[in-house]
């Protein structure tokens, strides 16, 4: 499956932004408890953009792609990085919002014991994350997220 560009590495205090980027189909990783120098190494190795709320990190004299996020509000954070992102329908909800891995179609018969009966009766299309096992379907939460994204 084709993936969106650019890819992001976010500081730990931008977890919510990472989830929204994943929702839109972007590869957005957050590594917990690794050093700033390791983050820089990973940004350069994986050709990512580092998003941070730390002015100190954003002003580092080391060479790496970075962007300082100034707002604490998710809507404003997304607007701040709008020059890097688009809202391509082909990629929406193609990544696990928990662990960032690509999602795959799964037959509803294979997950019948993993989701509530009501969901099975009212939905036919399911996606699964092969890493964490999370199962997704287009229910009310999906509709709420689509509304939020369309407002942005």
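Sequence proposed for the structure above (152 residues):
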């Amino acid at each position: 499956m084709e993936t969106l560009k650019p890819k992001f590495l976010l500081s730990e205090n931008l977890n919510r932004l990472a989830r929204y980027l994943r929702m839109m189909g972007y590869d957005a990783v957050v590594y917990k408890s690794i050093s700033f120098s390791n983050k820089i190494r990973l940004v350069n190795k994986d050709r990512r953009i580092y998003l941070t709320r730390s002015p100190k990190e954003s002003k580092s004299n080391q060479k790496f792609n970075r962007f300082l996020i100034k707002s604490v509000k998710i809507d404003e954070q997304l607007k701040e990085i709008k020059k890097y992102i688009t809202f391509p329908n082909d990629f929406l909800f193609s990544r696990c919002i928990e662990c960032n891995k690509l999602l795959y179609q799964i037959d509803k018969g294979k997950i019948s014991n993993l989701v509530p009966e009501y969901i099975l009766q009212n939905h036919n299309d399911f996606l699964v994350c092969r890493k964490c096992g999370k199962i997704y379907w287009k229910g009310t939460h999906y509709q709420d997220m689509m509304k939020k994204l369309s407002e942005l």
